[in-house]
Design a protein that fits this description.
Elements: E1 5-7, H1 11-21, H2 27-45, E2 51-57, E3 62-68, E4 74-79, H3 82-92, E5 97-105, E6 112-118, E7 127-131, E8 134-135, H4 139-150, E9 155-159, E10 162-163, H5 165-174, E11 180-182, E12 184-185, E13 188-189, E14 195-196, H6 202-207
Parallel strand pairs: 1-11, 4-5, 4-7, 7-9, 8-10, 9-11, 10-12
Antiparallel strand pairs: 2-3, 5-6, 13-14
Helix pairs in contact: 1-2, 2-3
Bound molecules: uracil.
Uracil binds at residues 81, 134, 136, 193-195, 198, 201-203.
Pathway: Pyrimidine metabolism; UMP biosynthesis via salvage pathway; UMP from uracil: step 1/1
GO cellular component, one term: cytoplasm
Family: Belongs to the UPRTase family.
Amino acid sequence: MSETLTIVKHPLVQHKLTLMREKDTSTASFRRLLREISLLLAYEITRDLPLSERRIETPLCEMDAPVIEGKKLALISILRAGNGLLDGILELVPAARVGFVGLYRDEETLQPVQYYNKLPTQMNSRLAIVVDPMLATGNSSAAAVDLVKQAGATDIRFLCLLAAPEGVQRMAEAHPDVPVVTAALDERLNEKGYIVPGLGDAGDRMFGTK
Ligand code: URA
């Protein structure tokens, strides 16, 4: 598969994902699992952030201690399902700046239609992590990354829960410079653009709208 793709195979991630896939998992459980899994995925996607040293004083002595270098991260949520991943990541990186991109998928053409775009300032000096649980056709994800690049970002990663091969390929073609991190790569998309076996509509399942 694509060189830009990382699948997080940690047993806790895989177990929680299985619970989320099950059709009878309640909205409350789905939401809790999504928050838990996003912490683990955030841990993975940030594992190589550059560090610098800061002089600090412990109760015993002074030392040069590691801190994350550079400007605060920018987390960009693709509305609305991205917010489910966002909440968990923010618990781990509470000082991150947050942006929102509103895209809905035209159910006939499967193409993204933009209705909202509000990104943090100084995107050119931040690592941007774009989040959306489902990388399906990749059209919305590629469009969201386009907007993040237009805002000046050059260091961008994409985080999702489930990916379809079609979406991974679309992202690799449109944005070969953007690593994609996911918990699983599923088999395919169905004729309606849903990931199979998947977990259904992530937004509906997390917000209880169906
Ligand atoms: N969006 C979803 O919520 N689920 C899919 O399977 C595909 C796109």
